[in-house]
Design goal:
By secondary structure, the protein is mainly beta. It is 14% helix and 35% strand.
Length: 492
C-alpha cells in the first residue's frame, strides 16, 4: 500500500470511529460447510448371467451428511457376451431399435430405451422397515414418459445411460456397443425414482440405512442385438447363447455437511413432537398393466389422497424378444396409433376411431372424448410437463430455467406420418401415450384432485384392436415422509 493510500485509509477509519460506526463482513448465507462425494458398493458388486428376477441391492450409508439426489450417480458395467459371431449372429447390441420399418416407415427411436430397460421393479425401504416407494413396471413407466419431461439438451446428457441421441449427422439413433466387452454406464439417482429428484437435500435420518432394491427384467426383452455396426440388420441366430452380466456396481453420493448450528436446528425439528419430525416430500408412481381391446374400461384402485396425473402407454401383449425378430419393435417402444386402433381414418391427425376418457367418482375427465391425436398430445404434455412451481420433483427450485417447452418429443414424433407413403397415417416413433393432468393449479404442487372419497379411477376406451395390446397405466401422486431420529412414517 502506498503512503497516500495508507493515509486515506487511516482518515477513513478515524472518521468511522468518530461517528461510532462499524462495518463488518457479512456472514455466509450458505448452510453447508463442506461438499464431497462418497462411494458405496452394491452387495454384491457383480451379477453374472442375469435373468428375470435377479435383484441388485444397495444399503445407503449417508453418515451425517445431507445427500443431493439429482447429482448422485450409480455406475456399473454391462457385458453382453456370445461365443457365436459372424453371419446372422450378433456382433453389436443397443438399448433400442434403430431400424425403420420397410413397409410403412415407422420408427422406434423415441421409445426412451436406455439401461433403465433392465429395471422392472424399483423399491426402497427405510432403516426402520417403512416402505418409501415401490414402483412396478418401472422400465415401461419411466422410459418413454421421461422424454415428455425433459428438453433435448437433457436428453443428450442422459446419453450416458445409453439412450438414443443425435449423432454427428443429426440423426436420432441408439448407440451400438460391441459384444464381449465391458461397457460403462452412469445412472443419475433421480432417474430411478422421484424421491432422489427433488430440490431439497435428503436428510441422513431418512437415507442412512435405507435399502434400494433393483429387480431386473429378462435381458432378451431389454436389449436389441445387431449383426453389424451399421445397425441395419437384427441378429436372427444363436440369440439364446447370449449372456448378460453386470460388474462393478457402485453408487456415488453427492453430499454436503452442514454447519453445526444448522445441523442442531434440523435435529431439534426431527425430535419435535409439534412438527412430527422432518417432512420430506416426493412423488411416486403406482403402475399396473391390463389387457385392452375393443370397447371397455379399467378400474384403477387408488391408495393416495391426491393424485397428480395419469398416463397410459400401449405395448404389445407378447413382448418383443430376440426370438421373434419378425415385426420387432424393440424394447420399451410404445405401439403407434395405427397399430392400436381397430379402424383406419384418413385424418392424419386423428386417432383412427379410438376414443379415451377418465372418470373419478362422478367426475368425467375431460368432459368430452379424447378422439384426435392433437388433443391427446396436448393433454399428455400438460400431464407430464405442466408449468408448475414444484417443490417436489423439480431440481430448478429458483425457477431460473424457461420451462415453457422442455418436451423432447415433438408432435411430428408423436404422430409420424410417412411422407413417402401417402396412404399411411397414425404411425409413430415409439412414443404414443395418452394422459391427463389432475393438478387444479399450475402454481402449486399439491393441488391434485382429492381421491379420498373415490378410491377408483376409471379409464374408458373404444376402438382398440382386440386381444393384441396391454395398457401400462401409471398414476403419479405425492408422498410425505415424516422423519424422526428413530423412525420414518410415509403418508400418501
Amino acid at each position: 500500500m502506498s503512503m497516500d493510500r495508507k493515509e486515506d485509509f487511516d482518515d477513513s477509519m478515524s472518521l468511522l470511529s468518530l461517528n461510532h460506526l462499524s462495518y463488518e463482513s457479512p456472514s455466509s448465507v450458505c448452510a453447508a460447510s463442506q461438499r464431497n462425494q462418497s462411494q458405496i458398493n452394491f452387495q454384491p458388486r457383480s451379477y453374472a448371467g442375469i435373468d428375470s428376477g435377479t435383484q441388485m441391492s444397495l444399503v445407503f450409508n449417508a453418515g451425517s451428511a445431507m445427500t443431493l439426489g439429482p447429482t448422485s450417480m450409480i455406475n456399473l458395467k454391462i457385458r453382453v457376451a456370445n461365443p457365436n459371431v459372424g453371419g446372422t449372429d450378433a456382433l453389436f447390441w443397443a438399448w433400442g431399435n434403430n431400424i425403420v420399418a420397410a413397409n410403412d416407415g415407422e420408427r422406434f427411436t423415441n421409445s426412451g430405451g436406455s439401461i433403465m430397460n433392465l429395471f422392472s421393479e424399483i423399491s426402497c425401504n427405510a432403516r426402520s422397515g417403512e416402505l418409501l416407494f415401490r414402483e412396478l413396471y418401472s422400465n415401461q413407466s419411466k422410459t418413454t414418459s421421461r422424454l415428455y419431461k425433459i428438453n433435448k439438451e437433457r436428453r443428450g446428457y442422459l446419453g450416458m445411460m445409453g439412450g438414443a441421441t443425435h449423432n454427428t449427422s443429426g440423426v436420432l439413433k441408439f448407440p451400438l456397443f460391441p459384444l464381449n466387452q465391458d461397457i460403462s454406464f452412469s445412472i443419475p439417482l433421480g432417474e430411478l425414482s422421484a424421491m432422489f429428484n427433488t430440490s431439497a437435500p435428503i436428510p441422513p435420518q431418512l437415507l442412512s440405512g435405507a435399502t434400494l432394491r433393483l429387480s431386473l427384467a429378462k435381458p432378451s426383452q431389454a436389449i436389441t442385438l445387431y449383426t453389424s455396426a451399421a445397425g441395419t440388420t437384427l441378429a436372427t441366430t444363436n440369440q439364446a447363447a447370449t449372456v448378460v452380466s453386470i460388474t462393478e456396481a457402485t453408487c456415488y453420493l453427492d453430499q454436503v455437511e452442514l454447519f453445526d448450528s444448522v445441523n442442531s436446528l434440523i435435529l431439534s425439528s426431527a425430535n419435535s413432537l409439534e412438527t412430527s419430525g422432518l417432512q420430506y416430500a416426493y412423488s411416486t408412481l403406482f403402475t399396473s398393466q391390463y389387457p385392452v381391446g375393443g370397447t371397455g374400461n379399467i378400474d384403477v384402485q387408488l391408495s393416495a389422497a391426491r393424485i397428480r396425473n395419469i398416463t397410459v402407454k400401449f405395448v404389445k401383449r407378447v413382448a418383443p424378444d430376440w426370438g421373434t425378430p419378425a415385426g420387432y419393435t424393440g424394447p420399451m417402444a410404445a405401439a403407434s396409433i395405427a397399430e392400436v386402433s381397430s379402424a383406419t381414418d384418413r385424418d392424419a391427425n386423428g386417432l383412427q376411431g379410438m376414443k379415451f376418457r377418465f372418470r373419478l367418482g362422478n367426475l368425467v375427465l375431460p368432459l368430452f372424448d379424447i378422439q384426435t391425436a392433437t388433443q391427446a398430445y396436448a393433454m399428455l404434455k400438460d400431464a407430464l410437463c405442466n408449468i408448475s412451481f414444484d417443490s417436489c420433483e423439480d431440481p430448478d427450485s429458483l425457477k431460473v430455467v424457461n420451462k415453457l417447452s422442455p418436451c423432447a418429443i415433438e408432435y411430428s414424433d408423436y404422430v409420424h406420418n410417412d411422407s413417402q407413403n401417402a396412404g399411411a397415417s397414425g404411425l409413430g416413433s415409439g412414443c404414443f401415450m395418452v394422459g391427463l393432468n389432475f393438478e387444479r393449479s399450475n402454481a402449486l404442487n399439491i393441488s391434485g384432485l382429492s381421491s379420498s372419497n373415490n378410491r377408483v379411477l376409471t379409464f374408458e376406451w373404444s376402438g382398440i384392436e382386440a386381444d393384441l395390446y396391454n395398457a401400462v397405466i401409471s398414476v403419479e401422486y405425492l408422498q410425505i415422509a415424516n422423519v424422526s431420529t428413530s423412525n420414518v412414517v410415509v403418508n400418501k
